[in-house]
Structure prediction request, 316 residues.
Amino acid sequence: MMLSEGNQSLLPTFILLGFSEYPEFQVPLFLVFLSIYTVTVVGNLGMIITIKFNSKLHTVMYFFLSHLSFVDFCYSTVVTPKLLENLIVENRTISFSSCIMQFCFTCIFGVTETFMLAAMAYDRFVAVCNPLLYSTAMSQKLCALLVAGSYLWGIVCSLTITYFLLALSYCESSIINNFICDHSAIISVSSSDPYISQMLCFTIAIFNEASSLVIILTSYVLICITVMRMRSTSGRRKTFSTCASHLTAITIFHGTILFLYCIPNPKTSWLTVKVASVFYTVVIPMLNPLIYTLRNKDVKNTFRKLVFTKWFCHSI
Prediction:
């Protein structure tokens, strides 16, 4: 497995340019991203703890939501600390192994979230369209299989794409015009033909997007048909309100992914790619817990109780 044509004994070193072309914005960007990451950590870990300590939230929907929060936390943690470091230090180097590991984990959590959202759409479909059979259809075993399958498929996709990245040749030192080691950035500094790796990544991305969106769209089309048949206006409103948070999360996540990865050789500037990458690796993991929390009274009430109890105990 050849990593460098010039000297195979040396692992290449990459330099992540990030937003270094805008030196006047380094400190403001650091403060913004630090704030976002803080909200992401508190929001997602808070969601997991809230669901764990409230027995009312021990349902299928919140089971999926707790795993979605875990994935978002891990997703952001793989990327944001390195981004923050590069905004305040002059040495923006990253070792080849660290770069590949960062890509590998972002791929795992990205694919996992894609199918986690699809599983949540299926859960909403069963809840709305087959409420009498819901407890039977969405058994603990099936839910566990859906979650495990999402993680497993993410690992399979990541390891497959990573293997073909490792098969490419790289110079001893290369500059990556991004803040993250994503696929397009890594192959851009390859010294060998990346066609196979590029097409493999494109094919997997198309398959993942198409298959997950088919599940999501089919589920919500059937949900809409069922809701339109309801005679009660309040029933319709309640059902749409229940699905609104999930639809919002899906639209933001898949809209960004489609823009970035499902258009071969996009004629977009690196700045556009960086901004889009910031959105789906840094911003979206922060938005998901906010989206679900702001529209859910049970989560908000439980979170307030936990915070009040902890504050009250410390004050005593």
Notes: The longest strand covers residues 13-16. The domain at 13-315 is CATH 1.20.1070.10 (Rhopdopsin 7-helix transmembrane proteins). Strands lie at 13-16, 93-95, 173-176.
